[in-house]
Amino acid sequence: MKNFKKPTEESKAVQYVLIGTSVLFLSLFLLLPLAIIFTTAFQKGLDTYWASISNSEALAAIKLTLIVVAIVVPLNTLFGIISAWLISKYSFKGKNLLLTLIDLPFAVSPVISGLIFVLLFGAQGLFGTYLLEHDVYIIFALPGIVLATLFVTVPFVARELIPLMQAQGQSEEEASHSLGASGLQTFIHITLPKIKWGLLYGVILCNARVIGEFGAVSVVSGHIRGLTNTMPLHIEVLYNEYQFTAAFAVASLMTILALFTIIIKNLIQWRTKETTL
Amino acid sequence: MSIQLSKVEKHFGNYHALRDISLAVEAGELIALLGPSGSGKTSLLRIIAGLESLDSGEILFDDTNVLTLSAKQRNIGFVFQHYALFNHMTVAENIAYGLKVRTRKNRPSKQQIEEKVAELLQLVKLDHLATRYPTQLSGGQRQRVALARALAVEPKVLLLDEPFGALDAKVRKDLRRWLRNLHNDFPITSIFVTHDQEEALDVADRIVIMNEGKIEQIGTPTEVYEHPASPFVYNFLGNVNLFKGRLHQGTLQNGDFSLQLPGYEEVQIEETVGYTRPHDLLISKQKIPDTVTALVTHIHPIGAVVHLELNRIDTNEFLEVEIPQEYFRNLEITKGETVYIKPKQMKVFVEDYVI
């Protein structure tokens, strides 16, 4: 029948209103800002743009961000795999507590996450005097930034893997053991291939957040130019000094990174769908 | 390899999954663990495999206690109900896996592995699918890959968890005949779990019937079918008609009729149940003494045996009768007709007095 309408199908008018609202909303809050970032960044020409992202302070910020990524992403990936393994394969006392703890960084404001470390390792903090005596600098230095970022991005990989591994069950792993494989062999040959797309997805989300983390890092970094400024902090400094073009130039760089991340993420999602079919 | 279980106990939390399980499996036997879901049969199989721990008891493979050995060390082949194939590996890679993960010292050469895989592929008749991935295979083909993979490591014991449970009826029958033949050619001690009576009766050398974590009876298919040790076994193995009544001086009084039960003269029970298989009921269109009157409510005439569903007039209870097709044709029974029924054989379970 031509006029047949499935019970779950909306009328044309409703469809157009819904689509229209979404498009309008996305344009206003996503596309428009994106356009503004790029137009402002290139407002004063390519030379200024290049100068803004290639001066020593900008380069130091980029370098610091990449160092933090290089330390934090692998550590949280490792932690994510271990905790997901633990939670999906074993039942033990305190399992729910562990799950809650993994979620904690999502619930806590990043500023507070940063403050925790200042209170622990700052000059007036719990271990402050001890650290000062031994010439160990955590706050207003790289270790502090790494710690704060680590804390904020703990859930990303674990949260991605736990439901996946729980849903997959472990009969393949049991089959592997019954065929004589060791725990490590089973992990490498069976578990890792099973979770690789989910794992990569988690790593990408984690990576994006590490690059973009502002609140927690802002509290512990001290905003020392060319030393403890990550890219988001560098943008804020420039913006506060009314160097809009420079701020937007660095912002555009981060935007490009983010866009790439989203593209890779979507490729992976598409790939995962294909393999699970 | 023979398997000896003694006094195996298992709890899952508060749930008593296995109670005092003792069982001896001889080398080369094909054993079925049969029972309804929740009877503990899969738990028992997983405990034998080393995939699950037990609370107390002993397991011996030949004369070796294997309790401290992990699944990896027990040299078993395990076939899972849902195949548990490695989906990212081809059929050939799946089969080769158990050989490839061996330590360098025990690992066969690449060529030996290839030969072994080819041989097994031939055995399960899947040579043409060696390079396919499991997701590209049908259920029956997947289960055969799983079997080949388990056999590749030359296990001393083959354990199968509802191996044909997820397959459709036709494939199921083919595979089960194939398993029987395979076992004849390669008599590996095998235990398989099933909830399908027909499958157990058809394939196994001996059947272990389980219920609520206990073993109800162990015996050959004929033994358990002809001489069920308990009402549960009687009920579980095939269809059955129940005659509730009073047993007195060798006579069971049930509704309108009384039935002589030779051998029960000494027993007197106010309330008992007589069990009769559908093919042990005599059906007649003429009234003869000591029969009960019933209405034919449904006729299922397909196959060599005709199934009749009847409704007793006196007690309004449901009865099932099976008669040969030829006999059915001679009788000319139609739906809605009145017939007369009499049990040719009946079994009564009296505590400590089973005949």
TrEMBL record, chain A:
<keyword id="KW-0812">Transmembrane</keyword>
<keyword id="KW-0764">Sulfate transport</keyword>
<dbReference type="InterPro" id="IPR035906">
    <property type="entry name" value="MetI-like_sf"/>
</dbReference>
<protein>
    <submittedName>
        <fullName>Sulfate transport system permease protein</fullName>
    </submittedName>
</protein>
<keyword id="KW-1133">Transmembrane helix</keyword>
<keyword id="KW-0813">Transport</keyword>
<dbReference type="InterPro" id="IPR005667">
    <property type="entry name" value="Sulph_transpt2"/>
</dbReference>
<keyword id="KW-0472">Membrane</keyword>
<feature type="transmembrane region" description="Helical">
    <location>
        <begin position="199"/>
        <end position="224"/>
    </location>
</feature>
<feature type="transmembrane region" description="Helical">
    <location>
        <begin position="16"/>
        <end position="38"/>
    </location>
</feature>
<feature type="domain" description="ABC transmembrane type-1">
    <location>
        <begin position="62"/>
        <end position="269"/>
    </location>
</feature>
<feature type="transmembrane region" description="Helical">
    <location>
        <begin position="136"/>
        <end position="158"/>
    </location>
</feature>
<comment type="function">
    <text>Part of the ABC transporter complex CysAWTP (TC 3.A.1.6.1) involved in sulfate/thiosulfate import. Probably responsible for the translocation of the substrate across the membrane.</text>
</comment>
<dbReference type="Pfam" id="PF00528">
    <property type="entry name" value="BPD_transp_1"/>
</dbReference>
<feature type="transmembrane region" description="Helical">
    <location>
        <begin position="98"/>
        <end position="124"/>
    </location>
</feature>
<dbReference type="GO" id="GO:0015419">
    <property type="term" value="F:ABC-type sulfate transporter activity"/>
</dbReference>
<dbReference type="GO" id="GO:0005886">
    <property type="term" value="C:plasma membrane"/>
</dbReference>
<dbReference type="InterPro" id="IPR011866">
    <property type="entry name" value="CysW_permease"/>
</dbReference>
<feature type="transmembrane region" description="Helical">
    <location>
        <begin position="58"/>
        <end position="86"/>
    </location>
</feature>
<dbReference type="InterPro" id="IPR000515">
    <property type="entry name" value="MetI-like"/>
</dbReference>
<comment type="subunit">
    <text>The complex is composed of two ATP-binding proteins (CysA), two transmembrane proteins (CysT and CysW) and a solute-binding protein (CysP).</text>
</comment>
<feature type="transmembrane region" description="Helical">
    <location>
        <begin position="244"/>
        <end position="264"/>
    </location>
</feature>
UniProtKB/TrEMBL annotation, chain B:
<dbReference type="GO" id="GO:0016887">
    <property type="term" value="F:ATP hydrolysis activity"/>
</dbReference>
<dbReference type="InterPro" id="IPR017871">
    <property type="entry name" value="ABC_transporter-like_CS"/>
</dbReference>
<keyword id="KW-1003">Cell membrane</keyword>
<dbReference type="InterPro" id="IPR027417">
    <property type="entry name" value="P-loop_NTPase"/>
</dbReference>
<keyword id="KW-0472">Membrane</keyword>
<dbReference type="InterPro" id="IPR003439">
    <property type="entry name" value="ABC_transporter-like_ATP-bd"/>
</dbReference>
<dbReference type="InterPro" id="IPR041193">
    <property type="entry name" value="CysA_C"/>
</dbReference>
<dbReference type="Pfam" id="PF17850">
    <property type="entry name" value="CysA_C_terminal"/>
</dbReference>
<keyword id="KW-0067">ATP-binding</keyword>
<dbReference type="InterPro" id="IPR050093">
    <property type="entry name" value="ABC_SmlMolc_Importer"/>
</dbReference>
<dbReference type="InterPro" id="IPR005666">
    <property type="entry name" value="Sulph_transpt1"/>
</dbReference>
<dbReference type="GO" id="GO:0015419">
    <property type="term" value="F:ABC-type sulfate transporter activity"/>
</dbReference>
<dbReference type="GO" id="GO:0043190">
    <property type="term" value="C:ATP-binding cassette (ABC) transporter complex"/>
</dbReference>
<keyword id="KW-0813">Transport</keyword>
<dbReference type="GO" id="GO:0005524">
    <property type="term" value="F:ATP binding"/>
</dbReference>
<keyword id="KW-1278">Translocase</keyword>
<keyword id="KW-0547">Nucleotide-binding</keyword>
<dbReference type="Pfam" id="PF00005">
    <property type="entry name" value="ABC_tran"/>
</dbReference>
<keyword id="KW-0764">Sulfate transport</keyword>
<dbReference type="InterPro" id="IPR003593">
    <property type="entry name" value="AAA+_ATPase"/>
</dbReference>
<dbReference type="InterPro" id="IPR008995">
    <property type="entry name" value="Mo/tungstate-bd_C_term_dom"/>
</dbReference>
<dbReference type="Pfam" id="PF12857">
    <property type="entry name" value="TOBE_3"/>
</dbReference>
